């Protein structure tokens, strides 16, 4: 992206900057912050990072943050892409990806293009299916975040896990 940070912590770039450039830069900075912290310790940190990835999308996407035993980020992966009204999530593919990352824990996340982050009945149902499937391979689901227009709902904070 060609960003340059000066000794005061300010960033500069020559040329035109698109909205996509700004969002990608924000995502990079938030991920670096999480990595410096060593682990994800609360839904707000994960929500800020995932809001950058998912908040402005016009279609639904389902992402997973793969974590090790100490809840350090191994990877953040988009697993499923949907339409404006939903995305099909397949537990078998989630389990396969968890094994390939050697993950010990996960944070699930998806966006609602409508902007309303309230978890639907379908969101609650797939969360329970994924918890059961991942439990079979000793992977804990720490949270499922639903991203809306500027807002994030933590299903764990709501007692829905």
TrEMBL record:
Keywords: Hydrolase, Metal-binding, Metalloprotease, Protease, Zinc. Transmembrane segments: none annotated. InterPro entries: MPN, RadC_JAB, UPF0758, UPF0758_CS. Residues 39-161 form the MPN domain. The keyword Mitochondrion does not apply. The keyword Metal-binding applies. NCBIfam families: radc. This is DNA repair protein RadC. The lineage of its organism: Bacteria, Pseudomonadati, Pseudomonadota, Gammaproteobacteria, Lysobacterales.
């Amino acid at each position: 992206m060609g960003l340059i940070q000066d000794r005061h912590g300010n960033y500069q770039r020559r040329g035109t900057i698109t909205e996509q450039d700004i969002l990608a830069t924000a995502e990079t900075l938030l991920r670096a912050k999480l990595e410096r912290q060593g682990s994800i310790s609360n839904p707000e940190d994960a929500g800020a990072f995932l809001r950058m990835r998912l908040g402005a999308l016009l279609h639904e996407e389902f992402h997973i943050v793969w974590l090790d035993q100490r809840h350090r980020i191994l990877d953040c992966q988009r697993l499923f892409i949907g339409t404006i009204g939903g995305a099909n999530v397949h537990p078998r593919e989630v389990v396969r990806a968890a094994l390939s990352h050697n993950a010990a824990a996960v944070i699930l996340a998806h966006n609602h293009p409508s902007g309303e982050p309230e978890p639907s009945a379908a969101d609650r149902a797939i969360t329970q299916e994924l918890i059961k499937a991942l439990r079979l391979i000793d992977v804990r689901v720490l949270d499922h975040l639903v991203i809306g227009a500027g807002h994030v709902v933590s299903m764990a904070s709501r007692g829905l896990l």
